[in-house]
Amino acid sequence: MSPSQIGAMTGLLVPLGFFALVVMIVWLLIRKNQARTRTRAEFHRQLLEKFSSGREFAEFLEGKGSQRLLEDLWSERLNAKERILRGLGAGVVLTVLGLGILGLSWKTANLLYPAVLFLALGLGFLISTGVWYRLSKKWDLLRDEKRYLESEPVSHE
After folding, report:
1. Which residues make Cβ contacts (< 8 Å) with residue 51, sequence separation at least 6?
2. d(Cα 45, Cα 40) in Å, to the nearest integer?
């Protein structure tokens, strides 16, 4: 193979590989969401099977702890700490990936655009995480809440 053929193949394979990577990441995120939904549905089914009558279920729902438990299970909210850690992790990974590709771009000019893209995404995640952290501190979202302590025991006779 001549150097021009290798260059032409590289010019074709790099964008295709990048596109394939993006498609794979999106597919994995969709599968993760589907698995979470299936797990949640299975939990709800098992929870409802535990009660032999509507009265037992109503007694269960009267407790504050059970209401909070069900609210947490039915909503997909992330607490502030989880959100900050996820954003920080994504920002660090994308920034390091961008810097690594930027280092490779000194040899191959075709890698400059993906390097800048990953670097910008990583820095964007880090800036977003910093803003989220400051707002969470200002709004007092980072304190640990004592959950389920107010719940009353439910009798299942």
Report:
1. 57, 60, 156
2. 9
Angle at 102 between CA 99 and CA 107, to 5 degrees: 145
CA-closest candidate to residue 131, choices 75, 97, 91? 91
Residues written for the chain = 157
The string of pLDDT tens digits covering residues 83-127 is: 888 899 999 999 999 999 999 888 887 888 889 999 999 999 999
Planar angle of CA 113, 118, 123, nearest 5 degrees: 125
Q: pLDDT digit string (tens) for 50-80? A: 877 778 878 877 877 777 776 766 655 557 7
Alpha helices in the chain (DSSP H): 3-49, 54-62, 64-74, 80-104, 112-138
Of 26, 17, 24, the closest CA to residue 108 belongs to 17
Residue matched to tokens 């939990």: 43
Give domain limits for the chain: 1-77, 78-140
CB count in 10 Å sphere of residue 103 = 11
Nearest to 87 by CA among 44, 121, 39: 121
